[in-house]
Task: structure prediction
Amino acid sequence: MATTYHIDEIDQKILSFLVNNARMPFLEIARECGVSGAAIHQRIKKLESNGVITGSRLLVKPQALGLNVCAFISVVLSEANKYPEVVNSLRHIPEIVECHFVTGRAALFVKVFCFDNDHLMEVLLNTIQKIPYIQSTDTMISLDEAFERQVWVKDYSSVSFTANSLSTE
Result:
């Protein structure tokens, strides 16, 4: 059952602080928002329980682990209604860090990290392309990540969020 959560001005401020620094102490956020630390704690718990905040995480630079090749792969399916089975198979490939259902000729767009081009070829030929209902793939190797950032949080006059019951995590 989907629930709707109204994101007010204080929630937006909390989110903007956490997007910039997920480790920012609740008391510091409380001071900035002009409310108590307990109120911030309750609001963050409510944002989490309503699916607005999906977690906080430590990000590891892939190159620090030797994952020097980043690639994006568009995946064309032979049968569009087999999307859930294909996604479930892709979910079990550790090199895939993102998977999106997209519009256009391809049905899926995935992001992978590999050690080198040989590793990428292995993942493509012996793993991804062997999944039933994958008709074809098109691979683009990233030469450089110009930037990466969290979503933009700004002051909106009114925002409501309905949690999606199709969570992937």
About this structure: DSSP finds five helices and six strands in the chain. The chain has a mean pLDDT of 89. The longest strand covers residues 69-77. The chain has two domains: 4-57, 62-142.
